[in-house]
Amino acid sequence: xxxxxxxxxxxxxxxxxxxxxxxxxxxxxxxxxxxxxxxxxxxxxxxxxxxxxxxxxxxxxxxxxxxxxxxxxxxxxxxxxxxxxxxxxxxxxxxxxxxxxxxxxxxxxxxxxxxxxxxxxxxxxxxxxxxxxxxxxxxxxxxxxxxxxxxxxxxx
Length: 156
Fold this sequence. Notes:
Blueprint: E1 2-5, E2 11-14, E3 19-23, E4 26-27, E5 30-31, E6 34-38, E7 41-46, E8 48-52, E9 57-62, E10 70-73, E11 83-88, E12 93-102, E13 113-116, E14 123-128, E15 137-146, E16 149-154
Parallel strand pairs: 1-9
Antiparallel strand pairs: 1-2, 3-8, 4-5, 6-7, 6-9, 10-11, 11-14, 12-13, 12-15, 15-16
């Protein structure tokens, strides 16, 4: 089980892969958009935030901030070579999102192997494992279109 601290300060105990959806408070019967943070990293923007548990986490929410498309690669989960990413395109047109594997600070063009997620989803999560090439590094990436140009965001 993983300990998940929610924005209201309460704690949940979830197993790996359990789904949880948090909703922003409503005002006059309407929910308002919020900036959602997981362990201090901005991971989503909107009236609700849905994710699958993969480790102990603290979820917080703010009503103001600056939001750009994000992709977060979490720590290793379950097995030594399994990785999960979480992404949100912030309303931008997603071209591709995935995890790249290699042995250094690689990019989409210089990786040893790549696992690509579903295309067209605005936000979500998935898990991937590198091939048998001995990759030691994983990075999440998100390619989106803005004003006719393609931009790439990488996890740290």
